[in-house]
Amino acid sequence: MTSPPQSTDILVVGAGMSGLTAASSLDPTRFQTLVIDKSLKIGGRLASKKLGNARFDYGAQFMTAREPQFLSLIKACEELGIIKQWFTSDSGKQQGHPRWCGSSRMTAVADHLAGSLQFYPGLRLATIECINDTWLARMSSGEEIFARALLLTPPVPQILELLKISDIKIAADIFDRLDRIKYEKCIAVLAHLKGPSTIRHPGGMKFSEGQISWLADNQQKGISKVPAVTIHGSVIFSEQHYHSDRQKSGTLLLEAAKSWLGSGVSEFQVHGWRYAKPATVDSERCLVINRMPPLVVSGDAFGGPRVEGAAMSGWKAAETLNGLLP
Q1: Can you list the domains of the chain with their CATH numbers?
Q2: Which stretches within 228-298 are classed as H helix?
Q3: How far apart are CA 49 and CA 43, in angstroms?
């Protein structure tokens, strides 16, 4: 794995939608920008994986677009064949906003945004320290990066923990705003089926009660060549079972979804999203914790609990950094 440079203008922590939109819109003629992520994969909750021959989107399932800036990105990606329109309404409901998904997988959107960015996976930020109007970011693996500005895009509880460990003092009103942000958990099951599911066209079903919040047929969606279903546990189920045995939790969700699976399960995996979606959102699209050297936070807890919200937050953070840095 290539080691990152020891210094940069802007260090973006987190390679999800917010971090990628911010980094890709910063002027490369003005700033050197590095992106790091603790994961070896890009995309954050734009998450896809293979299980045998089956492919799954198991994080964000689709994107909607209401803001002109995000709609422009959607249209550009659609023209490039990176995304496609999946459906415009839930089964049995009136027409609504179009839902777009990755043509091959949701992670493809993140891959496109990353482009030629300097991205360094597998780096976990351990502490930060302000030294002579510069941030020193220390990784748990020992690497150190000096940066003129920091953009933090992880879930807010992880940001607060980083600030606490690093002994970074922030204004009381800023702390209170961050501390008010809470997240919903989600247990996701990735089930490779022996035959086609009985999930109705277009392959996505939303539930308002019970143990399941969402079912998706990835074969109908067009990303898996073989029957593959994603099950998202409801907020209540996921909260109750998040710390339970994963296989047992997965088995319960498979049983709850049995009437829509249509056939037996060849194999399955379970993933727990501890910070699946913000339950509360800040009033601003990004938040400046420190002006000089700049320390800014962004993410879907600021732009809104959708892929679009994370993107809008990232763009606002980039705009803010452009104004703070000389």
Answers
A1: 7-38+122-181+282-324 (3.50.50.60), 48-110+183-278 (3.90.660.10)
A2: 235-241, 246-256, 258-261
A3: 12
Task: Write the CA distances from 43 to 57, 94, 158, 253, integer angstroms.
Answer: 12, 31, 17, 26
Which are the contacts of 284, defined by CB distance < 8 A and separation ≥ 6?
Answer: 302
293, 184 in Cβ contact below 8 A? no
Largest CA distance in the chain: 63
Distance spanning both ends of the chain, measured CA to CA: 33
53 token code pair: 């021959």
In a structure prediction context, what are the per-residue pLDDT tens digits for the chain, which is 326 residues long? 688 989 999 999 999 999 999 999 999 999 999 999 999 999 999 999 999 999 999 999 999 999 999 999 999 999 999 999 999 865 445 557 899 999 999 999 999 999 989 999 999 999 999 999 999 999 999 999 999 999 999 999 999 999 999 999 999 999 999 999 999 999 999 999 999 999 999 999 999 999 999 999 999 999 999 999 999 999 999 999 999 999 999 999 999 999 999 989 999 999 999 999 999 999 999 999 999 999 999 999 998 899 999 999 999 999 999 999 98
61 alpha-carbon distance from chain centroid: 11
63 DSSP assignment: B
